[in-house]
Amino acid sequence: MSLKDDLRDLYVNGHRRLPQDVLEVMDRGAAQLLATRLAEKALGAGEHAPRFTLDSATGDKVSLDALLAEGPVVLTFYRGAWCPYCNLALRALQRHRDDFAARGAHLVAVSPQIPDESLALTEKEQLGFPVLSDIGSRVAKEFGIAFDLSDELGALYDRLGFELHRVNAGHHRTLPLPATYVIDRAGVIRWAFVDTDYTVRAEPSDVVAALDAIGAPGDPGQAAGRRLKNERR
Fold first, then answer.
1. CATH number at residue 143
2. How far is CA 22 from the centre of its chain?
3. DSSP secondary structure letter of residue 18
4. Is 175 strand, coil or helix?
5. What is the largest CA-CA distance in the chain?
6. Structural domains counted in the chain
7. pLDDT in tens, 66-116
8. In this structure, are strands 106-111 and 73-77 parallel, antiparallel, or unpaired?
9. Closest Cα to residue 68, out of 231, 227, 225?
10. Which domain does 85 fall in, by range?
11. Contact yes or no for 65/51 (Cβ under 8 A)
12. 227 falls in which pLDDT band (50, 70, 90)?
């Protein structure tokens, strides 16, 4: 079964258990976010990925430059361990980690949560890739995928016990859109998935296909990588 099917099952079963007033607040929040067209404005294929260095769940400093020095990077943003859709997507990516590694790629996840929360998630889900803390969603803002929850939706999340003020180190209203990027060694985004709907995520098989395309002769992204190298000379 695909990740899309698993996400759909989670949506159907999860929404059946939610009160009508909660669903109405979530639907209004989703409509407001969609109206911003934020996903269309975010960084996409052919653009340069912003460089960053963030703390991992284990306290190490992880930089995009260091990862790119070893190969392409699969970079995925998620909202937090409190989000079941995020956890489902991370588990699906974990299952495909060997496929990414076979193509020389590193998988790394980024969220606005503090390292302790990321560590708890890593241990619970038995993730074998770095989970980084983007406090204040600084990196997410550079990718153009950060947004602020409405007061109504933020209050609902507080009521549901997500504790965003604590787990996001005081930045309780700012979250990233679900987004996954494939970045080549030259730092060029070769493939991007960004959506305002938190119930949909990048399909791992599509990520694998994007990695396979990186070395294809005559590929536009490959030419972009060569241009970037020439600019640096």
1. 3.40.30.10
2. 25
3. S
4. strand
5. 60
6. 1
7. 999 999 999 999 999 999 999 999 999 999 999 999 999 999 999 999 998
8. parallel
9. 225
10. 3-232
11. yes
12. very low
